[in-house]
Specification:
Blueprint (H helix, E strand, L loop, with lengths): L29 H11 L8 E4 L6 E3 L9 E3 L2 E2 L23 H5 E4 L3 H10 L8 E3 L10 H4 L1 H12 L3 E5 L8 H9 L3 E6 L5 H7 L6 H13 L4 E8 L8 H11 L3 E6 L6 H12 L4 H11 L18 H17 L26
Parallel strand pairs: 1-5, 3-6, 6-7, 7-8, 8-9, 9-10
Antiparallel strand pairs: 2-3, 4-5
């Protein structure tokens, strides 16, 4: 039976559960579906739901040898941006939810995250290092407009003088430009914005609820003008879909005043691979085989290479060509490629109750 069209404004084409943990597979009965719309009318619009959760800890530590940070905080789980290529989609499978439509419609928020983080910073012996935000799901996805958890976390970082590095696909980051500029004055923040293409139509099906490419480039420029160290991530590069935008994105980033840029080849871990293949068959059936042939050629014949170091270093002739194109684009644009250094030496443990110290 053909896959029904995905709900408008969503990235995944389906909501099948993962089989990685031997969960029972659900399938709607085809005979019943034939008459459902005639009897009951069109299916209700798929809406976003948010469940509040109250964990004991929000700071996550990692020992990955190919990641430049050892700790991160995520205010939300799941992401309404709906980027079909998102490597975080498989995390929803741990909660018996679909890495497809559930990941972008059944979200979780941690309203106490800033308070919990404050207690972590206040613990005796806590040693500060750069804390990453946006490593799993976007800290500025649409529900941040209601919850404001990311802003509260930044307020704690400013008070404690704790360095933080932010990655986002949303121009909503500009709502916190006051905090970000204050953090920047003390060398405590760097912001990376991911720009995958400059085509709003393509962005609309690739990452349907993220900010448009033009708004992301504008956000880079406005942050840079405010003195915030900015970085442009061309991530991911999707061969035969987005790669032709690489040079133009580098030029736009240089004009915006960013300090550095990089690129990351498409990664398809676990359930992301079948979801991406489904997306290709829906939106680019004419080149789906070609795209996956390129991907597999750079990943040792597989859809994905999960190995440390190699997962971020595709191999082969096509990978070498992308590296050469990027290096030449950076040289022509005059992009400075400055290393973004943050200061860990000024950290001051905050009071647990949130009250400012008396002078």
């Amino acid at each position: 039976m053909p896959t029904p069209p995905a709900p408008h404004g969503r990235g995944a084409q389906s909501g099948a559960l993962s089989r990685r943990f031997n969960l029972a597979e659900r399938e709607a009965d085809g005979d019943w579906l034939d008459d459902a719309e005639a009897i009951d009318g069109p299916a209700p619009k798929l809406r976003t739901t948010v469940t509040e959760e109250h964990p004991r800890a929000v700071l996550t530590f990692n020992k990955s040898p190919d990641i430049p940070f050892d700790r991160s905080v995520n205010a939300y789980r799941g992401c309404e941006h709906g980027c079909i290529y998102c490597f975080a989609r498989p995390t929803h499978a741990y909660h018996d939810l679909s890495p497809g439509l559930d990941f972008e419609t059944k979200l979780f928020a941690k309203p106490d995250a800033a308070k919990i983080l404050r207690r972590t910073f206040a613990k005796p012996g806590y040693a500060p290092e750069i804390m990453a935000m946006g490593t799993n799901t976007d800290p500025y996805q649409p529900i941040e407009g209601k919850y404001g958890i990311t802003r509260e976390i930044l307020e704690v970082c400013l008070e404690a003088k704790h360095p933080v590095a932010i990655t986002t696909k949303s121009a909503r980051v500009l709502r916190d430009i006051d905090l970000l500029s204050e953090l920047a004055k003390q060398q405590l923040v760097a912001v990376s914005i991911s720009v995958t293409s400059l085509d709003p139509r393509l962005s609309g099906i690739l990452e349907p609820r993220a900010s448009s490419p033009a708004r992301r480039v504008d956000a880079l420029a406005r942050l840079a003008a405010a003195g915030v160290p900015t970085h442009c991530m061309i991530s991911p590069i999707i061969p035969a879909i987005t790669d032709h935008h690489m040079e133009a994105i580098v030029d736009e980033a240089a004009t915006a005043g960013v300090r550095a840029a990089n690129w990351i080849m498409l990664r398809l871990p676990h359930e992301v691979a079948p979801l991406f293949r489904e997306w290709l068959d829906t939106h680019f059936p004419d080149r789906a085989g070609k795209v996956m042939a390129f991907v597999q050629e750079m990943r040792g014949g597989r859809d994905n290479d999960p190995g440390f170091h190699s997962r971020f270093r595709p191999t082969g002739a096509w990978a070498d060509l992308f590296r050469q194109r990027f290096a030449l684009a950076v040289k022509r644009s005059g992009l400075p490629q400055q290393r973004l250094e943050l200061d860990c030496s000024a950290f001051t443990p905050p009071p647990v109750d949130g009250q400012l110290r008396l002078l």
